[in-house]
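Title: Comparing notes on inverse folding

I've been comparing how different people in this forum approach sequence design from structure. To keep things fair, I'm posting one structure and asking everyone to reply with a full sequence. Here's the target:
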């Protein structure tokens, strides 16, 4: 479903935003980076089947030239994220270990991640002509971006007295 009106969302608890991706630095050998790329779908499948692991929502993106992937994901907490990453019964730990055996530091395939813990008064969002996407997809709480939620300033800055 696409929301044709402008929508926003609000969070009442901290939320963890996790960005993770891969960049192909050398196209050959194909088998090296393809194996790294194929490691992500089982992780996403596991997380979607088991919401108790803490991932609330995710969006994947792909870019050619240089070949790069990114997953923007929203988590209940950094502890949920870390537990998934370190649990030997989940697919991440084995994939991470295999990456270092296969690629190591040879420069052929890069992997990266960034983690942010966002407090409720430090985030704002707006979506127009969009489905449940990003933060609103994570909260499952689409709110009309009207009245006291109609502008960036009203959504974010008016939550506390604007300083200076």
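Reply #1:
Here's my take.
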């Amino acid at each position: 479903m696409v929301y044709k009106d402008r929508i926003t969302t609000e969070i009442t608890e901290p939320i963890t935003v996790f960005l993770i991706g891969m960049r192909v630095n050398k196209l050959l050998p194909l088998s090296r980076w393809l194996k790294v790329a194929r490691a992500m779908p089982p992780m996403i499948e596991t997380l979607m089947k088991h919401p108790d692991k803490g991932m609330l929502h995710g969006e994947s993106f792909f870019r050619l030239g240089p070949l790069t992937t990114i997953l923007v994901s929203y988590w209940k907490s950094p502890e949920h994220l870390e537990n998934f990453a370190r649990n030997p019964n989940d697919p991440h730990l084995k994939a991470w270990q295999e990456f270092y055996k296969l690629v190591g530091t040879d420069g052929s395939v890069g992997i990266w991640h960034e983690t942010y813990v966002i407090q409720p008064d430090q985030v704002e969002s707006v979506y127009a002509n969009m489905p449940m996407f990003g933060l609103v997809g994570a909260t499952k709480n689409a709110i009309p971006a009207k009245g006291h939620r109609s502008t960036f300033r009203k959504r974010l800055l008016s939550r506390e007295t604007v300083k200076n």
